[in-house]
Design brief:
Among the domains are: 2-107, no CATH class; 125-222, Beta-Lactamase (2-Layer Sandwich); 242-295, Helix Hairpins (Orthogonal Bundle). It is built from 13 helices and twelve strands. The chain has helices at 2-5, 7-27, 34-74, 88-124, 143-149, 161-164, 168-180, 224-259, 266-298, 310-327, 346-362, 409-414, 421-431; strands at residues 128-133, 138-141, 184-192, 195-207, 213-222, 305-308, 331-336, 342-345, 369-376, 380-387, 435-441, 445-453. The strands form three sheets. It has a five-stranded antiparallel beta sheet, with helices on both faces. Bound molecules: adenosine-5'-diphosphate and magnesium ion. Magnesium ion is lined by residues 355, 358-359, 417, 421.
């Protein structure tokens, strides 16, 4: 019934009705019995309706369905299918349309996956990314970019880049890319909340299939850390050169004076030679410490860890230290309050204790007291190096572990210090996963605490 009610069918049935009426009108003059004519016309109408029904079901309906399915596919609904059993070429057509729909659906899914993957990469990239079209409108911007230039996420998309990006240098980089149609690199520095950040900006043009400029991709790399390391290295080289320059100038000066005649005066000669000797020792110490530091940096992950026997460790380092302590009549006391053994790099631990005890002796006055105490906590072995020497002002404590940092340069020089001793100590403690603390009071003395984990975890 439904089929008859459908608009198309109603039209066709009406057409058949008209044909039947016309047949009736043609036959009427030749008919004697009106009832016979009516019966014939009704039978004709029924037969024609059956034929119509047959053709509708076999050809018109499937083509209608195929057309509707194609319309849905065109609109992007790739789930549309033809669910109609059909034979012959129309059946084949519907199978092909269903196959096409399935392929389109798979393509759409793949496209979605790819788009999601791409957006995940863009969003989670460690570098700021932004895509700008040829008219200057922003199409894509990632989280990193927003966090680099704004404190709160802001909607960049759909805006002109020069309306939402404040930095003029970035504008120039983009403009140059559009102008020269070439990749442009630029280094910028931005001050934010009292800190300086360094960024490398690379703006690359995008072209379409016929080589017309379609826009630009801007990548922003945060190179602040790299810059800091570079600055530190430059400072380090400058410091080393400066530290070497002083003794070398002095050696050269005294050698020249000796050559100019001073060599003939025994007293002057001996005095000058002793200075040359002391200065050359300073150079030697400096080079030795520099080599230790550079070795530590190279070997940071290759500690030669072994079980340490405190007695052996102390017997190896104490004799030399006792000699320097005796020279200043300093009492050097040693207490070992632990039976635990621990694992560490023995040579490096010796270096830590030598540097700390040498400082304690160097920065103590005559008749002072220096002590080394070895204790333990539940996790660490603790070395406490204490002196009652000159001490340090609190304001200096945060900087004493820096390379070449010395509170009193002249005093440090007089004691043969290179300014690298505590930097070396800190480095060694850190590669053992340990910790170092300092307490000091000017004029009263200093205590260094070194904590080394009993089970040193080797960094791989
Ligand atoms: N025990 C200490 N007492 C007082 N000052 C110290 C002590 N240890 C270190 N310092 C200060 O810390 C600075 C850095 O020490 P260090 O790195 O060993 O260099 P250096 O001893 O070669 O000068 C020293 O110059 C000194 O001013
Ligand atoms: Mg020192």
């Amino acid at each position: 019934m439904k089929i008859l009610v459908s608009k198309k069918m109603f039209g066709h049935s009406l057409l058949i009705f008209i044909i039947v009426c016309l047949t009736g009108a043609i036959l009427f003059p030749f008919t004697t019995n009106i009832y016979v004519l009516c019966t014939i016309l009704i039978i004709q109408y029924i037969i024609l309706l059956i034929i119509l029904f047959y053709f509708y079901n076999k050809y018109i309906k499937p083509i209608d369905k195929a057309t509707r399915t194609m319309e849905k596919l065109l609109k992007g609904n790739y789930h549309a299918r033809i669910h109609h059993q059909m034979d012959g070429s129309i059946g084949e057509l519907s199978i092909k349309i269903n196959e096409l729909a399935r392929s389109l659906n798979e393509l759409k899914i793949q496209e979605q996956i790819q788009a999601e993957q791409l957006s995940t990469i863009i969003e989670n990239s460690d570098n700021g990314l932004i895509l700008i079209d040829e008219k200057g409108y922003i199409h894509i911007v990632n989280r990193k970019f927003i966090s680099m230039f704004e404190n709160t996420p802001q909607d960049y998309i759909g805006y002109l880049y020069y309306e939402v990006i404040e930095n003029e240098e970035i504008h120039h980089t983009i403009q140059e890319t559009f102008l020269r149609e070439k990749t442009v690199k630029q280094l910028i520095s931005i001050a934010e909340n009292g800190e300086r950040f360094y960024y490398e900006i690379i703006s690359a043009p995008i072209f379409n299939e016929i080589n017309l400029l379609k826009g630009t991709v801007l990548a922003v790399y945060d190179i602040t850390e790299f810059k800091l390391v570079e600055t530190m290295r430059k400072d380090f080289v400058a410091n080393v050169s400066h530290e070497l320059k002083t003794p070398i100038t002095s050696i050269r000066g005294f050698a020249e004076t000796l050559l100019d005649g001073a060599i003939h005066d025994t007293n002057t000669r001996n005095y000058f030679l002793s200075i040359i000797f002391e200065e050359s020792k300073r150079i030697q110490y400096l080079i030795e410490d520099l080599l230790i530091l550079s070795k530590l940096e190279k070997e940071a992950y290759r500690l030669h860890v072994s079980k340490i026997d405190f007695q052996v460790l102390l017997n190896d380092i104490l004799p030399v230290l006792k000699i320097s302590a005796q020279k200043k009549n300093i009492e050097l006391e040693v207490h070992v309050d632990t039976n635990s053994t621990f694992q560490a790099d023995e040579e490096k631990m010796k270096q830590v204790l030598i540097n700390l005890l040498t400082n304690a002796i160097s920065y103590s006055l005559e008749n002072g007291q220096v002590s080394l105490k070895v204790t333990e906590t539940s996790e660490d072995i603790c070395f406490i190096v204490k002196d009652n020497g000159i001490g340090m002002g609190k304001q200096f404590l945060p900087r004493i572990f820096e390379r070449f940092y010395r509170i009193d340069k002249d005093r440090s020089r007089d004691t043969g210090g290179t300014g690298l001793g505590l930097a070396i100590v800190k480095h060694i403690v850190e590669i053992h996963d340990g910790k170092i603390d300092v307490e000091s009071e000017l004029g009263k003395g200093t205590t260094f605490y070194v904590y080394i984990p009993k089970n040193v975890k080797l960094k791989k």
